[in-house]
Amino acid sequence: EAHKPSNFLRQIIEKDLAEGTYGSRRWGGSPGDAAHHAAGQPDPARVRLRFPPEPNGYLHVGHAKSICLNFGLARDYGGVCHLRFDDTNPEKEDTEYVNSIKDAVQWLGFGWDNKSPAGHESNLYQASDYFDFMYRAAEYLIEAGHAYVDEQTVEQMRISRGDFAHPGTDSPFRSRTPEQNLARFREMRDGLHEDGSMVLRAKIDMASPNINLRDPAIYRIRRAHHHHTGDKWCIYPMYTFAHPIEDALEQITHSLCTLEFEDQRPFYDWLLDRLCEGGLVATPHPHQYEFARLNLTYVLTSKRKLAQLVYDHKVSGWDDPRMPTIVGLRRRGYTPEALQLFAERIGVTKSDSWIDYSTLEGALRDTLDPIAPRAMAVLDPIKLVLTNWDAVMGAGKLDDCSAPVHPHHPELGKRSFKIGKEVWIERTDFEETPPKGFFRLFPGNKVRLKYGHVIECTGCSKDANGNVTEVQATLIPDTKSGTPGSDAVKVKGVITWVGVNDAVQAEVRLYERLFVEAHPDAGGKDFIENLNPNSLKVLQAVVEPSLAAAKADDKFQFERHGYFAADRVDHAAGRPVFNLAVGLKDSWGK
Ligand code: ATP
Ligand code: MG
Ligand code: MG
């Protein structure tokens, strides 16, 4: 993949492929359950990655980075990427989220069909399928003297764990025999003990400088209904125990996670080393590599906080076009190509930083510009009357105008519309008393109506409050765009317009950043206080007749305004609704 810029993960993968690191994977000890696990026989020639979301919310732009990274690396190196639902936590999970995650991955352009010779039809996994194996692994650790049941209170455990400055102290339950621990653990499983009354802990080192190695809890009692396993279990594995096992069972080679898990890596390795010794998983086991999570200015990337915006009705739902969720971005007008380009441009690094929101918008603009059909729209219309129209063009007459669908793609053809005596123009394109440097309409000035004629402004009408209600101008004959000699009259301004005669009414939704602070949840302030009260503006606009045929999700460049998408939910034939996806220029810093 010479055309892709390298990064530390690509280098690691290329080295492992060159050295055949995973080519001789085998099980040590006696054959364990691993031989029967879901992923089947080793597939040594391939890199295997995984994207392991917890199905407890809708995915956001940070997850898009991770999806593009994992599925993209698998694609580039002839490997496989698993979509794995990390559903070991019974309480927060829901099939609504499972379905939305599948949709998001597919929409982004990735799938989980297994093209591998291992012969499995799908690379769709769910961690709860491994509960039996995880339980077996826990019993193995107990039998081998690597785990014990601790009956201290939560508070006692917290105190005895110590802190950065002080080593921990051993639990009085730490010296129980494997037989005692096994009996206790089975009682936990069989529901003989209260929730929270005891936990299973790995027996590692209470004095370790890494607090994660001070006998972390690996199983807890929790009487909760699981969306997949129902009431079968009243004990559930902790995430830090479950995750390495999931990776190992699926024969993942490179387990990519965000930097905050760096301190967990020693436990990841400790656990899989023990299970390799016991012959429960194959060796070499998967390795964890950390990369910087996406932090995007003006954006929250936390499912919990995004959920709060939804449940507190600060936005219209998970797919509100202002939300950084994949469904929100999609509704706003983002495309898979734009998010892939964004992921490529930000790359992967080993240190946290903030990506400027303009990088995301730039990726959308750069992917839409070459393909989006053009159209004229007047977002804040005021009527312009061409007072000499009847004399010059003929009373009631309409004149045909046309424009390319796309300026660089003549093969896409032309759009046509008509000009008549009355046209809609932008209110801001007229000034009775023009400020310096204003080249558009003011009395005495000439401008071109784009794809139409040159006109000269003659005046305006006002209401009792002095608000302009209509602008008047005269049409200058023989200046129509595309006709010989049409550029004889020089003008400094060109304005967009829509003929009153064939205008289509449309609702246009303009969006601004959802938060006024670049780091919405920093500084101790509640992020709700940082919401931008002006993040949505709804306009009744007029658009050119070609847009009457727009279908939901279609994207356009409204000339001079930006890129717009027909709303996926509310747009309908006869009731067009367009969302501002991104402006024409980077206005983020304004
Ligand atoms: P949240 O904190 O928003 O709930 P999470 O990390 O708990 O996110 P998971 O469902 O566990 O959500 O995430 C699945 C994968 O997505 C993980 O491998 C995680 O590393 C990755 N991921 C989550 N957030 C980001 C982010 N901001 N940037 C890059 N990757 C991310
Ligand atoms: Mg998580
Ligand atoms: Mg998180």
From TrEMBL:
The gene is glnS. This is Glutamine--tRNA ligase. Residues 372-475 form the Glutamyl/glutaminyl-tRNA synthetase class Ib anti-codon binding domain. It comes from Polaromonas jejuensis. InterPro entries: aa-tRNA-synth_I_CS, Gln-tRNA-synth, Gln/Glu-tRNA_Ligase, Gln_tRNA_ligase_bac, Glu/Gln-tRNA-synth, Glu/Gln-tRNA-synth_Ib_cat-dom, Glu/Gln-tRNA-synth_Ib_codon-bd, Rbsml_bL25/Gln-tRNA_synth_N. ATP binds at E54, P55, N56, T258, R293, L294. The keyword ATP-binding applies. Residues 23-48 are annotated as: Disordered. L-glutamine binds at D86, Y239. Belongs to the class-I aminoacyl-tRNA synthetase family. Monomer. Its EC number is 6.1.1.18. Residues 47-355 form the Glutamyl/glutaminyl-tRNA synthetase class Ib catalytic domain. One of its GO terms (molecular function) is ligase activity.
